[in-house]
Every structure is written in C-alpha cells, then in structure tokens.
Design goal:
This protein is an alpha/beta fold and 295 residues long. The protein has 9 helices and 10 strands.
C-alpha cells in the first residue's frame, strides 16, 4: 500500500473537512497526500463557448488556483513533514477521482459540494465513487468522536470480509478499539440464514434464543481470522437485534469512523451499493469508509 491518499476539493467547507481527514490518513500511513481538483467549465459558470476540456484562464484560473492553494496550505499547516502534491485535472469530478483511485490507497471526499458544484451533492460523487472506485472511499460527514472506536458493519457474507480487514487496519493505525456490529432480526434473511429454511412466525417463538446464538457465531466467525493478524487491536463484538440501518446510524454517534462493505448478504445482486451502505452515507454521525469486495 504505497499509493497516495487522494482528496477531492472544490472549495466547499465539506471539502476542507475532507482535507483534514485526508491529512490524518496520509500521516498515519506515512504516504503522500494528493490534493485533486476536477475542472469543468460549466461547473464554474464559464462562457458556453469555452471548451469543457480546456485549461482554466483569467478569473476562472485564479478561482481554481485559490481553491487548490487553500487546500494545500490547510494540509501543510497541520502536518509540516507530510508530502503534499496537487493537481488540477480537466473532466467530470467522478471520472477524475475514479481514475485517481487506480493508484491511490484511499480516496477522501466531503459529503457535499459547494453551491457552484451542485452536481457534487451526495447521491452523485460520493455514491458513484463508493460503487466504482478502485480503492476504499472515505466520505467525511458528521462530527466524529476523537476518542471513539472504529465501527465496522458485519453481515457474515464473504463480500464483507474486505471491509472488516480495512476496519482492523484503521483501528491498528489509530491504536483504538474496534466495535464490530452485527444486526439481526427474525424478519430478515439473517433469520432464514441461521435457521436454515424459510421462517414461519409461529416457530420463531421457540427459536429466538437459537437464532441469537447462530447470529453470534456468524459474528465470531467473521472476525476470527482478522484477530490473528491484528493481535494488538481490542475488538468489542456487538450483537444487536433490530434493523441494520438504524442500528448502524445510532452506533455511529460515538464512533470516529464507520466502515461498511459496498454490498453484503441478500438484496439484489445487480445493486453495487447496498441499502444499508447508502443509508449511512446519508445519515451517519461520523465519516464513513466504503470498501468494495472486488478490490
């Protein structure tokens, strides 16, 4: 993992918060921080006759340079020894950052863009990158607890294993506790998974205890191999009976970072980003890292 940490900036307060998070990530990893601004004429309300792929000039050039310079200065003021590079790249921001992800070990973005970049609002760039980036994506939002744990969502699926590995790595970097949350319900595919057959509500009366034990084993099995790799990380398994999305959002209140997979067990295989992942991107109280299973 020698690639840089890349942060996308557009001059918005959210992007500057992303710079702060990216500085921490790059410093912890001991790698370069690369500040990237994607330039597109229409996004800056430039004359229609201007080429969307041409370099910024005049007042537009000054505005772009100021966006990048402010971000670079902010980064360097927080970590003098950190190597900070920067680039202004012509193209749509999602496409540009996706290309950057091919050589990066982490992409960091804010949860919304500036007013001049209305198309960068969450539901566009952050979700697109979470589905298509070639490295983990961190979306900076909420107010992370500086002393809180790293929180990882566990569903027991093979697709969720890379997210768990990333969460252990992040907890080790920060020398902090890892909370592994597994939510289960008698009305979900988790219940069918544990009982081994479709659920009849009548039989649940006598099988809830068994179901709880089965789901506890799912959680333990998902963590077992990673515990050996990171013996110094304190892990707190948390088994919650209830719906996954509200359980994760509530748990994020005390976390410094939440890690989720892009798609876990169940659902439609054609959906690259699961409903729980999308929900926490919009509502979590701390930064969210999305880790695809095919990286």
């Amino acid at each position: 993992m020698n690639g840089p940490v890349v942060v996308g900036v557009d001059g918005s307060p959210s992007a500057l918060e992303a710079v702060d998070a990216a500085v921490q990530e790059a410093s912890l990893r001991g790698v370069e921080l690369r500040v990237v601004h994607a330039f597109l004429w229409p996004a800056l309300h430039a004359p229609p006759a201007s080429s969307p792929l041409g370099p910024p000039t005049g007042a537009v050039h000054e505005a772009v340079e100021r966006i990048v310079a402010d971000a670079v200065e902010r980064a360097r003021s927080q970590a003098e020894r950190l190597h900070v590079s920067h680039a202004v790249i012509a193209g749509d921001v999602s496409t540009v950052l996706q290309a950057q992800s091919r050589t990066a070990q982490l992409i960091v973005v804010g949860h919304r863009g500036s007013e001049a970049f209305a198309e960068l609002l969450l539901g566009s760039t952050a979700v697109y990158l979470s589905m298509h980036a070639r490295c983990p994506v961190m979306v900076v939002r909420g107010r992370p607890s500086p002393a809180g744990p790293v929180l990882v969502a566990v569903d027991g699926s093979p697709q969720g294993q890379p997210a768990i590995a990333f969460a252990f790595f992040e907890a080790a970097l920060r020398n902090t506790e890892l909370v592994a949350l597994h939510a289960w319900s008698t009305w979900t595919d988790h219940g069918e998974h544990a009982l081994g057959h479709p659920i009849d509500p009548v039989e649940l009366v006598g099988d809830v205890d068994r179901l709880r034990q089965e789901e506890g084993q799912v959680l333990a099995d998902a963590l077992s191999g990673h515990r050996d790799q990171y013996p110094g990380v304190t892990v707190r398994p948390r088994l919650v009976r209830g719906r996954t999305r509200p359980a994760l959002i509530e748990a994020s209140t005390d976390a410094r970072l939440m890690v989720v997979g892009a798609r876990g067990r169940g659902g439609f295989t054609g959906l690259l980003l699961g409903s729980a992942s999308q929900a926490v991107l919009h509502h979590a109280h701390c930064p969210v890292a999305v880790v695809r299973s095919d990286l």
